[in-house]
């Protein structure tokens, strides 16, 4: 143990490590109110810069006697070991993603509405599937608006977009009409024009008796990882260049800049923001477009390859839940002679989903 002017050095299992006095004083266990679980200590009003008068190890605790203050800190050595290297606090929700491909449909994580409501273990498995694979199907949904809200609230709050809290997609096809053609929806992520596009999308199929109109889903992580290996320079351009998206009509003009390929804090592909129908006029220097556009098109074509796209029909009573920053979705063109199609959708926030998951799987810092 050696005491310096600005901090002290402690022998730990991983070797001797330096800790700053402000950090040690601010994070003294007594600085936190166990009831509110918030920091109640006010470091702005210390008389002088904190400095240890003496310090020693007592079993698994570092004991610090502070200079110029009637205060003794007893800090668990486990905390010191956690923070010694200056990395981020370990996060149980930071699970490695598992890329999936076009043949994934039989293996998509499935739950029922009743199971998720009544069973905490199923809820944990559901959120884990969302973090790792980014997609799940919830079956046996009651045919009500409330059922969707209940499902969302198992992970967080309903998260509005600038169109509101929920959206309804209805197609009533009158069999006496001439054949109705619904055009294809290209693979996309939703509302890229928002500054923070919603993190988790829910699509509750309430009625689906039309023929055709199969749902398409693909894992942006799988496609982007392959693109990284096939075309490293194209990958870099899509992961580092801010691109404008828009959504504009009479009373709104939403705009934002996003990156087509999104990376996480480890440099791994976290997902995508992509939508041809909401891509604004790309305002990059024209010479840069000589490289950007070919990369964008190469990646867009790769994403549509059968290798990545699951095609299936979402049945009435099913709700598909997916990561809107990772999973691209679309719909095949369909010509239907008869039937109804009614889909009700909404969103939740990924940070809230991670928060709920952490609270389910770990004790946190304050639980005894
Ligand atoms: Fe969509």
Rg value: 26 Å
Do you know the CATH architecture of the largest domain?
4-Layer Sandwich
Mean pLDDT: 93
β-strand number: 24
| Number of helices, counting only DSSP H or I runs of 4 residues or more | 9
Content of β-strand: 25-35%
List each distinct ligand once: fe (ii) ion
CATH superfamily membership of the largest domain, which one? Answer: Clavaminate synthase-like
Helix content: 10-25%
Pfam families: TauD
Protein name: TauD/TfdA family dioxygenase
InterPro entries: AlphaKG_dependent_hydroxylases (IPR050411), GBBH-like_N_sf (IPR038492), TauD-like_sf (IPR042098), TauD/TfdA-like (IPR003819)
GO molecular function, one term: dioxygenase activity
What does the model show?
Its cofactor is L-ascorbate; Fe(2+). It holds the Pfam family TauD. The chain is an alpha+beta fold and 368 residues long. It folds into 2 domains: 2-87, NE0471 N-terminal domain-like (2-Layer Sandwich), CATH 3.30.2020; 105-360, Double-stranded beta-helix (4-Layer Sandwich), CATH 3.60.130.10. The protein is 24% helix and 33% strand. It is built from 9 helices and 24 strands. The strands form 8 sheets. The protein has a 6-stranded mixed β-sheet with strand order 9-10-21-14-24-11. A 4-stranded antiparallel β-sheet has the order 13-22-15-20. Helix 6 (220-230) packs across helix 7 and helix 7 (232-240) packs across helix 8. The protein is elongated. It starts with a strand and ends in a 7-residue tail after the last helix. Residues 176-181 have low confidence and may be disordered. The structure holds fe (ii) ion. Fe (ii) ion is lined by residues 188, 190, 329.
């Amino acid at each position: 143990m050696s005491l310096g002017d600005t901090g002290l050095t402690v022998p730990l299992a991983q070797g001797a490590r330096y800790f700053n006095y402000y950090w040690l004083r601010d994070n003294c266990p007594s600085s936190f109110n166990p009831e509110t679980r918030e920091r109640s200590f006010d470091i702005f009003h210390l008389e002088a810069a904190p400095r240890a008068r003496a310090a020693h190890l007592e079993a698994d605790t570092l004991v610090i006697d502070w200079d110029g203050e009637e205060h003794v800190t007893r800090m668990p050595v486990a905390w010191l070991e956690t923070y010694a290297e200056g990395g981020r606090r370990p996060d149980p929700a930071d699970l490695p993603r598992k890329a999936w491909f076009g043949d994934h449909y039989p293996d998509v994580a499935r739950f029922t509405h009743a199971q998720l409501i009544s069973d905490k273990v199923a809820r944990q498995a559901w959120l884990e599937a969302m973090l790792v694979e980014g997609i799940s199907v919830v079956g046996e949904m009651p045919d009500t608006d409330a059922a969707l809200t209940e499902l969302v609230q198992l992970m967080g709050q309903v998260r509005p977009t600038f169109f509101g809290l929920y959206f309804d997609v209805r197609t009533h096809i009158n069999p006496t009409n001439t054949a109705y053609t619904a055009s294809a929806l290209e693979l996309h992520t939703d509302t890229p024009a928002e500054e923070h596009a919603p993190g988790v999308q829910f699509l509750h199929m309430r009625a689906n008796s039309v023929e055709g109109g199969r749902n398409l889903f693909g894992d942006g992580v799988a496609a982007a990882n392959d693109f990284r290996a096939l075309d490293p320079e194209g990958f870099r351009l899509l992961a580092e260049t801010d691109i404008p998206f828009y959504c504009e009509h009479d009373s709104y003009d939403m705009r934002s800049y996003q990156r087509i390929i999104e990376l996480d804090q480890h440099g791994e592909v976290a997902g995508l923001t992509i939508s041809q129908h909401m891509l604004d006029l790309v305002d990059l220097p024209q010479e840069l477009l000589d490289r950007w556009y070919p990369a964008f098109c190469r990646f867009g074509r790769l994403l549509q390859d059968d290798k990545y796209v699951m095609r299936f029909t979402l049945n009435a009573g099913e709700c598909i839940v997916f990561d809107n920053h990772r999973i691209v979705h679309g719909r095949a063109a369909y010509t239907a002679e008869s039937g109804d199609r009614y889909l009700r959708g909404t969103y939740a926030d990924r940070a809230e989903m991670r928060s709920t998951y952490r609270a389910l799987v770990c004790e946190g810092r304050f639980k005894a």
